[in-house]
Design a protein that fits this description.
The chain is mostly helical. It has one domain (2-147). It has six helices and no strands. The radius of gyration is 18 Å and the shape is globular.
Length: 148
């Protein structure tokens, strides 16, 4: 049942991305071009998404999920080097390609060539990040391993 619910949510999300043109790298790059032909469409989509997500978050906070044993919410509260490095890399990739992970999956059905190239680079980056985390954890003394 969880897989079916995830598939339905993914389909709705992908449909929303497609209808709002957020799978079009030109729209995203137009938003990032603040000194040129700036396109505010992405800002409006983000504001709408944040409004819906904020409302949804408030409605489910503290309640037991229907299709899972417990809520799986982030617990980290600190801004650390890996978080900042990931944010910077994400921003650079988004600025260069005009694609981010969600729209890239949706883009597979529209422009598979650029989507496959982006997804391959993203998966390679995820693999490198996992290898880095393992190497970093292996170098840490046992007493500090749980500190993060």
């Amino acid at each position: 049942m969880q897989i079916l619910a995830a598939a339905i949510v993914g389909l709705v999300f992908g449909t929303g991305l497609t209808l709002s043109s957020m799978v079009n790298p030109a729209v995203v790059l137009g938003f990032l071009d603040v000194l040129g032909a700036w396109n505010p469409a992405l800002l409006l989509v983000m504001i709408g998404a944040l409004a819906v997500a904020s409302l949804g978050y408030r409605l489910v906070l503290g309640r037991k999920p229907l299709l899972a044993p417990a809520q799986n919410l982030p617990t980290a509260r600190s801004i650390d080097t890996p978080l900042m490095a990931g944010a910077v890399l994400f921003g650079i990739g988004w600025g260069l390609a005009g694609i981010c992970p969600g729209p890239a999956v949706t883009l597979l059905g529209i422009a598979p060539g650029s989507a496959v190239l982006f997804l391959a680079a993203m998966l390679a980056g995820m693999l490198l990040a996992a290898l880095y985390q393992r190497a970093r954890a292996a170098r840490r003394p046992a007493s500090n391993a749980a500190d993060g």
